[in-house]
Amino acid sequence: MMSVPAALIMNVVSSFLCRRLDVSCYRLCTRMSSTSHEIQSKFEEVRGNKFHYQETGQGDHVVILLPGALGTNKSGMHHQMEKFNKEKFHLIGIDPTGYGKSRPPERDFPLDYYHRDADDAAGLMAALGHNKYSVLGWSDGGVTATILAANYQESIRRVVLWGSNAYYTEKDIDRYEKTRDITKWSEKMREPMVAEYGKELFQKMWSAWVDAVVRFVEEKRGDLCIAECRLIDKPTLILHGDKDSMVHLEHPVFFQQNIRGSRLVRFPDGKHNIHMRYAEEFNRHVEGFLNEHD
Predict the structure, then answer these.
(1) Which residues share a beta bridge with 162?
(2) pTM of the full predicted structure?
(3) Is the separation of the CB atoms in 92 and 86 below 8 Å?
(4) pLDDT in tens, 132-168
(5) Residues 169, 267, 291, 252: what is their CA dihedral angle, to the nearest 10 degrees?
(6) CB distance 91 to 63 below 8 Å
(7) Catalytic site residue 186?
(8) What are the residues whose beta carbons fall under 8 Å from the beta carbon of 171, sequence distance 6 or more?
(9) Exposed, middle or buried: residue 270 (CB in 10 Å: 0-12, 13-18, 19+)?
(10) Is the pLDDT confidence value at 248 over 80?
(11) Which residues of 81-111 are buried (b: 16+ CB within 10 A; e: fewer)?
């Protein structure tokens, strides 16, 4: 019987094991990549409250997304969470305190609630170990994003705002009073909120939000974040739908005129939800802006 040299046997075994190891590593890397591209729901303790957020992507550029009034990340930012480049961006979308799954506590609307939301967002990012990130804010989230960018400038890379205000006017009160009765909303806009909160709680929360708008005008001359606009020194992109019935064109123009070096992109046929209705174009503008050199 012919003997097989020990060295040959070792080479064969070694080659076999290496191939098996390569396959295992490939499968592991594939699973890790797949997991990093999934949208995962998580919780974190922030300033004494249990805070819900969603996370996806493995890029070096960390981005926090702030939804509008009563909104959640799932209902308000899914087009961005799903479609942004996951290799370049690491996305963290939040349910602000009292919204969505960040309950309890019950949501309230004192005159400092935008500042409270900004402190919560900064607290979450610090708890997660992110000390440098960009911020995207829609509608109410845009006010919060403005305050966050002004008060935590050392943490901010870039700012994106849309459908937002730095102040309220009497005309804004008229616009929002027309929305107070949720039965007059379109089914498309109403049902996600009803699904999240139930009809009774949604009506209660929305009425409380409209009441807060009135108080801002009566007690603070409408000021939400006027001074903060002028403190921002980070690159800022403002987007606006010209047919937005909730936010008049004067508001994004004010942002552009008062945030140094900011630019404004307008969607001629866009309404309040340009990031949903024109998601592909919107994402292209925002990703391009975020990818610019700081």
Answers:
(1) 138, 239
(2) 0.88
(3) no
(4) 999 999 999 999 999 999 999 999 999 999 999 999 9
(5) -20
(6) yes
(7) no
(8) 248
(9) buried
(10) yes
(11) beebebeebbbbbbbbbbbbbbbeeebebee
Cross-strand partners of 63: 91, 134
User: What token pair was written down for 107?
Assistant: 């949501």
Active-site residue flag, 244: yes
Q: Which range (19-28, 32-41, 132-141, 211-220) has the least confidence? A: 19-28
Which of 139, 155, 164, 262 is the catalytic position?
A: 139
DSSP string for residues in 187-228: HHHHHHHHHHH-HHHHHHHHHHHHHHHHHHHHHHTTBSSHHH
pLDDT of residue 37: 85
**Residue bearing tokens 């490939």:** 26
Q: Which of 244, 262, 275, 285 is catalytic?
A: 244
- Provide the pLDDT for residue 28: 46
- Is 164 one of the annotated active-site residues of the chain? no
Contacts of 246 (CB under 8 A, 6+ apart): 139, 163, 175, 176, 179, 272
CA-CA distance, 165 to 154, in Å (whole number)? 24
